[in-house]
Amino acid sequence: MEGRIVKISGSVVDVEFTGTLPKIEDALIVDLNGKDLYMEVAQHIGDNRVRCIMLDSADGLAKNMPVKATGS
User: Fold this and answer.
1) Averaged in consecutive runs of 10 residues, what is the pLDDT profile of the chain (72 residues)?
2) pLDDT number for residue 62
3) 60 neighbors 13 (Cβ within 8 angstroms)
C-alpha cells in the first residue's frame, strides 16, 4: 500500500491512501534523501486518511511525499 503525506503538524502526520487503509499500530515508511523514517498509524480519520505519530524526526518532510505501509 502506498499513500501520500497530506498534513504535517510537528510529529503528527496525516497520510492519504487510495484503497485499503493500513491497520492501527502498523508502521509506515517515508524515504527522506535515502534514509527510511518510520511512523505509526494512530487513528483512522476518514476520507481514506490515517493520522500517524512519527517515530523519527519529522524535519524535512513535506506534503505529497510518498509513504509505504509495511503491513506490520
Assistant:
1) 96 96 97 97 97 96 97 90
2) 97
3) no
Q: Where are the beta strands (DSSP E) in the chain?
A: 2-9, 12-17, 27-32, 35-46, 49-54, 66-69
C-alpha cell at position 45? 480519520
CA 54/CA 27 separation, integer angstroms: 10
- Residue 34 CB partners (closer than 8 Å, separation 6+): none
Cβ within 8 Å of residue 46, ≥6 positions away:
none
pTM over 0.90: yes
Question: Burial level of 72, CB count in 10 A (0-12/13-18/19+)?
Answer: exposed
